[in-house]
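ok new one. same drill as before - structure tokens go in, u give me an amino acid for every spot. 393 of them this time. try not to just spam alanines like last time pls lmao
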């Protein structure tokens, strides 16, 4: 190769290198535009290939990546606009969050959740309900007068049941929702484990897969309620725990244990996780028009025996010439056959509701006096055990 040819080759190589650099710059600017992840991967692969051709391969600096990251940075203005809202005035279910409600079988999960959906539609806090039911029979739905609700709300209540859709069709519908803006939409899964495709509810890996589906709906704007079951506790039979993997609770925003007090026909919601909103223990009675009425939690949770003890304590305090002490009340209850445990439980729980405690400075004893009960207070009556009770699941 003579001198002239060598110079020509050098110039050609230089021009080619400059052309490649120009192309790299154009492609890097392209990555800053609104491309999807797949398109960005293709462009970045081409950039990498061009850099290899001109020997420009080098470790990237943070400065080279910052614009790419900033496209996905948290939007502070949007964050400031977010307000914690609830489905209804009772502040039980937080909107646009994922809430788990766990209970024993036939304790009212489906019944109370359907009532919450009905009340949210009534209050116009949501526009549509999608209730996916893989748990209850058609007979159960008929007994709950679900047909009346369907007539009442029409297309606003979409109740999807395996009698009318195969499991494959149900999943097709769920996948459609995953691609939809779900603002002001309530989505309910009954029961959550039934939507696991060949998974084990005790394994985090399997549970996390279905929870990702629920979270995708939440990220699309939906309020999501998943109904779940509890295990029978090993020690304290009154303490229920949700069944299966810890991922059920970990991946939920909020979670409740639901108990039914059949003595007073009440439903008790006790929060076990509170990530969003201000949750507290709440109690309700249920009416056949699919509505829940909030009542005092302690009164609603009283068993028949505790209520009987309360009446004995009130009678005893009222008939004493002087304010009775703790010991005197406990002696009275034990003489009537009540255990010390239950007697103390009733006495402590009733403070501030039925009676008040006063500490005496001279001997450090506690004495008790009745609290005036306001008239027209609606009490929760016991169900007649011989009557037909509302069937719940």
């Amino acid at each position: 190769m003579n001198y002239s040819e060598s110079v020509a080759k050098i110039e050609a190589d230089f021009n080619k290198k400059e052309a490649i650099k120009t192309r790299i710059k154009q492609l890097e600017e392209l990555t800053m535009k609104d491309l999807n992840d797949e398109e960005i991967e293709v462009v970045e692969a081409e950039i990498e290939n061009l850099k290899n051709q001109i020997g420009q391969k080098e470790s990237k600096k943070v400065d080279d990546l910052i614009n790419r990251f900033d496209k996905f940075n948290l939007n502070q203005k949007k964050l400031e606009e977010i307000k914690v809202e609830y489905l209804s005035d009772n502040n039980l279910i937080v909107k646009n969050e994922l809430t788990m409600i766990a209970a024993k079988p036939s304790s009212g999960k489906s019944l109370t959740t359907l009532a919450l959906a009905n009340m949210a539609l009534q209050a116009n806090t949501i526009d549509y309900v999608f209730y996916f039911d893989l748990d209850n029979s058609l007979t159960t739905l008929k007994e709950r007068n679900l047909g009346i609700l369907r007539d009442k709300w029409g297309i606003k209540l979409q109740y999807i049941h395996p009698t009318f859709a195969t499991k494959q069709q149900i999943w097709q519908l769920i996948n459609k929702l995953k691609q939809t803006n779900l603002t002001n939409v309530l989505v309910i899964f009954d029961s959550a484990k039934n939507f696991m495709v060949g998974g084990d509810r005790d394994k985090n890996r399997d549970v996390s897969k279905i929870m990702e589906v629920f979270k995708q709906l939440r990220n699309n704007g939906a309020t999501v309620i998943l109904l779940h079951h509890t295990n029978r506790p090993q020690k304290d039979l009154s303490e229920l725990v949700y069944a299966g993997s810890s991922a059920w609770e970990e991946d939920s925003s909020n979670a409740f244990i639901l108990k039914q007090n059949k003595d007073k026909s009440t439903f008790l919601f006790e929060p076990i996780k509170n990530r969003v909103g201000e949750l507290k223990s709440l109690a309700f009675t249920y009416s056949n028009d699919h509505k829940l009425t909030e009542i005092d939690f302690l009164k609603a949770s009283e068993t028949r025996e505790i209520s009987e003890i309360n009446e004995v304590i009130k009678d005893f305090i009222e008939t004493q010439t002087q304010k009775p002490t703790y010991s005197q009340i406990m002696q009275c209850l034990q003489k009537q056959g009540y255990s010390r445990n239950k007697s103390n439980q009733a006495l402590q729980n009733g403070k501030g509701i039925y009676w008040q405690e006063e500490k005496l400075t001279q001997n450090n004893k506690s004495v008790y006096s009745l609290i005036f009960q306001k008239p027209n207070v609606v009490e929760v009556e016991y169900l007649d055990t011989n009557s037909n009770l509302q069937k719940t699941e």
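The chain has three domains: 3-73, 86-301, 304-370. and btw The longest strand covers residues 223-231.
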